[in-house]
Amino acid sequence: MKHNNPVLSGFIITLGLLFLAPVFYGLWMSFQTAEDYYSGSYGFSFKNYRVAFEELNFFRYLINSLIVSGAVTVPGLLTALMAAYAFARFNFRGQNLAFGLVVATLMIPSHITLIPNYLNLAEANMLDSYAALILPAIASGFVCFFLRQYIRGIPRALDEAAFIDGASSWTVLWRVIVPIAKPAIFSMGLFLFLAEWNSYIWPLVAVGREDMYTLQIGLARIYKLAPGEGLVDWPLVMAASVITMIPVLIGFVFVERHLVRGIAMGATK
Questions:
Q1: pLDDT score of 9
Q2: Is 42 strand, coil or helix?
Q3: Closest CA to 29 of 166, 186, 233, 251
Q4: Do the beta carbons of residue 151 and residue 99 sit within 8 Å?
Q5: pLDDT per residue over 36-80, tens digit each?
Q6: Phi/psi of residue 197, each to 5°?
Q7: CB within 8 A of 259, min separation 6: which ones?
Q8: Distance between CA atoms of residues 47 and 50, nearest Å
Q9: Within a 10 A sphere around the Cβ of 30, how many other Cβ atoms?
Q10: N or C: more exposed end of the chain, with fewer CB within 10 A?
Q11: Cβ(231)–Cβ(34) under 8 Å?
Q12: Does residue 262 surpass a pLDDT of 70?
């Protein structure tokens, strides 16, 4: 049913604009200079973006974040998908206990694992590397739980029909389950990507070389730069923030349809 109430439409648009107002303000501020900002004048300049990329090495940080987030998302999804399929479709000894342990990981604060992960990677001589940033983040109990619940909502009759045609369990997973579960898979892929993209504490602990910094560490370092005594270069910070947001917004545009559908269908299963 379509609603053509102009008052309601105007109210929703107003709320949307209010929600986006900080984003628009930050985008506008990113094209100002520190002198313009603190003097109250207005200008337009790409200086902040040029400084971020050329002087503050933000292009390298951007590449690092893309590599790490992408490398966590793909194997993280594959691992969680196969585990979820096993929990949802197979019966084996200790199944409930194993799944309970997976769910129990959701109750463990991530900060508790900082020291064990650091010591293990230091022992393996893997600190200050992509492996140090990627390996601890691959396994996700929440993604496994979400996909398991989604797969359980898919009728088993589809599996049985595929088995009658001679398909193996592996074929059923990739030819039957995955096409149906695409909305949930895209949703969890975006979840994993965003979680790693916004990660700050672990990259700060795991890497010490500047050429291995991610965008979040680079963004935090800008606060130490100042155009004058005790002043933060907020336009430069906003430019760096916009750089940090752009890849996420582009990714969201591509998966938005699957994301909404996946969350809506997952909530009803």
A1: 81
A2: coil
A3: 233
A4: no
A5: 888 878 888 888 899 888 888 889 999 999 999 999 999 999 999
A6: -60, -40
A7: 183, 186, 187, 190, 252
A8: 5
A9: 22
A10: N
A11: yes
A12: no
What is the sign, positive or negative, of the torsion defined by CA atoms of 227, 201, 131, 69? Answer: negative
- Residue bearing tokens 């107002």: 21
| Chain centroid, CA 107 distance in Å | 20
Q: Are the C-beta atoms of residues 151 and 88 closer than 8 Å to each other? A: yes
Helix H segments across 153-233? Answer: 156-164, 169-172, 178-180, 182-197, 201-206, 215-222
DSSP state letters, 125-142: T--SSHHHHHGGGS--HH
Pseudo-torsion of CA 6, 10, 12, 14, nearest 10°? Answer: 180
Helix (H) / strand (E) element for 150: namely helix 141-152
Distance CA 32, CA 35 (A): 8
Count CB neighbours of 196 within 10 A.
Answer: 24
To the nearest 10°, report the CA torsion of 73, 76, 80, 82: 100
pLDDT of 229 > 80? The answer is no
> Quick one: tokens of 180?
């149906």
Sole residue written with tokens 């998908």: 81
The secondary structure of residue 210, as a DSSP letter, is: G
Q: What is the pLDDT of residues 94-122, one digit of tens each?
A: 888 999 999 898 888 888 888 899 999 99
Provide the token pair at 146: 């979400």
Q: Is the dihedral of CA 16, 66, 102, 269 positive or negative?
A: positive
Q: For 27, list phi and psi in degrees, rounded to 5.
A: -65, -45
- Rounded Cα–Cα distance for residues 145 and 102 (Å): 8
Quick check: 34 and 233 in contact, CB under 8 A? yes
Measuring CA to CA, which residue among 259, 136, 131 is closest to residue 189? Answer: 259
Cα-to-chain-centroid distance, residue 35: 35
How many residues would you count in the chain?
Answer: 269
